[in-house]
C-alpha cells in the first residue's frame, strides 16, 4: 500500500518515539518535533487515516497512537534508517568476539549471552544445516559370535557405530553382500527417501541377511536425524520482564512459556533462505503465543554445510535499526571466525 510523503513522515515519527518511550504518541508531541512542519490538526487527521488503514492502533479512547504490526512492517521495509554503531559499541563487540573458545557450542552459548546483554532482550544462537545429511558409507564388520558392528559414515563427516546382535544365522560372506547392497542402494539419499518400496527391493537383494535390513535402516535414520538437529542456545528470557509491554504477569507468563528451544528451532522453516537478515513482526511469527512480539535474526556461514544464526525476541516496540546493526556486526565477525579461511594469494584455485 502506498502512503503519501506526509503520512510516511508522521508514521516514522510515531514509531521512532514509541520505540524510545513505550508511551502512546499524540499529535501535539509530533507537532513539536523540529523537522515537523505540519499543524496539530493536520497531524491528527493523518493519524486518524493511518489508524483506519491499519498502520496505527489506539489503545485507549483519548490516548495517542501506537504502531500496529502493519505499521512496523512498513517502517522496517520503507522508513527505517541505517543505524551507525558508535566507537564504544564497535569496540565492545570486537572485544566480545575476540573471546575465541575451543568448542563451538561454548562459543555459541557465549554469543547468545553477549547479544542478550547488548540488546536487553532474550537472545538465541543456533546452528542449522544448509542441506540434507546423507549416509556416505556403510560398513558391516563381523564381531564376536552372534553379533556384528554396524558403522555409519555421513556426508557431514560424522561416524557412528553400533554393536548389533544377530537374530538369525548369517555368514561372513552374507555380511559382505549386505554391505555391498547397502552402499549401492542407501547412500547419498536423504532419510525421507528410505521408502517401503526401496527397502523391499534392498531386502530382496540382501539374501540370507535380509532380516537385518529393518534394524540397520532404523539405526541409520536415527543417526541422520541426530545430525540434522539444530543446536539452540537460548538465554535472557527474564529480560522481557523489564519492558513495559510485559508488566502484566499473565501476558508475561504466556510469552515466557512459549519461548523455548522447540519454538526457536522451528524458525528456519519460516525464514527466507535468500536473506541473511530477517525480521518477523507480530503475527508473522511461528507460534501463536508470540503474535505480539518481534523476532530479528541474522545468519552466517560456518562451513562444511553448517550455518549459524543469532537473533533476539522482544516487543514490537524495539529499535530495529540498532538491533539489526548489532546483529549484523556479530554475524560478520562470527562468519570470519568460523568460516573456512581463504587460500593464500599465491595458492588460489584456478577456475
List keywords for this structure.
alpha+beta, Beta-Lactamase, disordered C terminus, 10 strands, 3-stranded antiparallel beta sheet, Arc Repressor Mutant, subunit A, single chain, 351 residues, 3 domains, Enolase-like, domain 1, 42% helix
What does this structure look like?
The protein is an alpha+beta fold and 351 residues long. The chain has three domains: 5-79, Orthogonal Bundle (Arc Repressor Mutant, subunit A); 87-122 and 236-338, GAF domain (Beta-Lactamase, 2-Layer Sandwich), CATH 3.30.450; 135-228, Enolase-like, domain 1 (2-Layer Sandwich). It contains twelve helices and ten strands. The chain has a five-stranded antiparallel β-sheet. The protein has a three-stranded antiparallel β-sheet with strand order 4-5-6. A two-stranded antiparallel ribbon has the order 1-2. Strand 5 and strand 6 (159-165) form a beta hairpin. The longest helix has 19 residues, at 320-338. It starts with a helix and ends in a 13-residue tail after the last helix.
Short note summarizing the structure:
It is built from twelve helices and ten strands.
- What composes the largest sheet? 5 strands, antiparallel
Rg from C-alpha positions? 27 Å
Averaged pLDDT, please? Answer: 83
| Total of domains | 3
How many distinct helices? 12
- Number-wise, the strands total 10
Order of helices and strands: HHHEEHHHEEEEHHHEHHEEEH
Gross morphology: elongated
Could you say which structural class the secondary elements and strand pairing correspond to?
A: alpha+beta
| Strand percentage | 15-25%
CATH architecture tag of the largest domain: 2-Layer Sandwich
Amino acid at each position: 500500500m502506498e502512503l503519501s510523503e506526509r503520512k510516511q513522515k508522521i508514521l516514522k515519527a510515531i514509531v521512532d518515539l514509541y520505540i524510545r518511550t513505550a508511551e502512546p504518541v499524540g499529535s501535539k508531541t509530533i507537532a513539536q518535533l523540529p523537522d515537523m512542519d505540519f499543524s496539530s490538526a493536520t497531524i491528527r487527521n493523518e493519524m486518524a487515516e493511518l489508524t483506519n488503514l491499519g498502520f496505527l492502533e489506539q489503545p485507549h479512547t483519548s490516548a495517542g497512537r501506537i504502531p500496529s504490526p502493519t505499521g512496523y512492517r512498513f517502517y522496517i521495509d520503507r522508513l527505517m534508517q541505517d543505524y551507525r554503531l558508535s566507537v564504544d559499541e564497535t569496540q565492545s563487540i570486537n572485544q566480545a568476539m575476540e573471546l575465541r573458545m575451543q568448542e563451538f557450542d561454548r562459543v555459541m552459548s557465549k554469543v547468545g549471552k553477549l547479544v542478550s546483554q547488548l540488546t536487553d532482550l532474550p537472545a538465541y544462537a543456533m546452528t542449522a544445516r544448509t542441506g540434507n545429511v546423507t549416509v556416505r558409507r556403510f560398513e558391516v564388520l563381523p564381531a564376536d559370535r552372534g553379533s556384528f558392528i554396524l558403522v555409519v559414515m555421513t556426508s557431514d563427516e560424522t561416524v557412528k557405530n553400533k554393536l548389533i546382535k544377530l537374530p538369525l544365522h548369517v555368514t561372513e560372506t552374507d555380511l559382505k553382500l549386505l554391505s555391498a547392497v547397502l552402499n549401492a542402494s542407501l547412500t547419498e539419499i536423504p532419510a525421507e527417501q528410505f521408502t517401503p518400496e526401496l527397502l523391499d527391493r534392498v531386502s530382496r537383494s540382501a539374501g540370507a541377511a535380509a532380516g537385518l535390513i529393518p534394524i540397520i535402516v532404523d539405526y541409520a535414520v536415527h543417526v541422520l536425524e541426530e545430525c540434522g538437529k539444530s543446536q539452540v542456545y537460548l538465554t535472557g528470557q527474564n529480560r522481557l520482564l523489564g519492558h513495559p509491554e510485559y508488566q502484566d504477569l499473565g501476558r508475561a507468563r504466556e510469552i515466557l512459556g512459549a519461548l523455548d528451544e522447540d519454538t526457536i528451532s522451528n524458525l528456519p522453516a519460516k525464514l527466507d533462505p535468500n536473506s541473511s537478515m530477517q525480521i518477523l513482526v507480530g503475527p508473522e511469527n511461528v507460534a501463536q503465543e508470540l503474535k505480539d512480539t518481534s523476532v530479528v535474526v541474522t545468519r552466517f556461514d560456518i562451513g562444511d554445510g553448517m550455518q549459524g544464526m543469532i537473533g533476539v525476541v522482544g516487543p514490537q516496540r524495539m529499535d530495529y535499526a540498532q538491533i539489526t546493526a548489532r546483529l549484523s556486526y556479530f554475524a560478520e565477525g562470527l562468519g570470519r571466525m568460523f568460516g573456512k579461511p581463504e587460500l593464500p594469494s599465491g595458492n588460489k584455485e584456478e577456475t
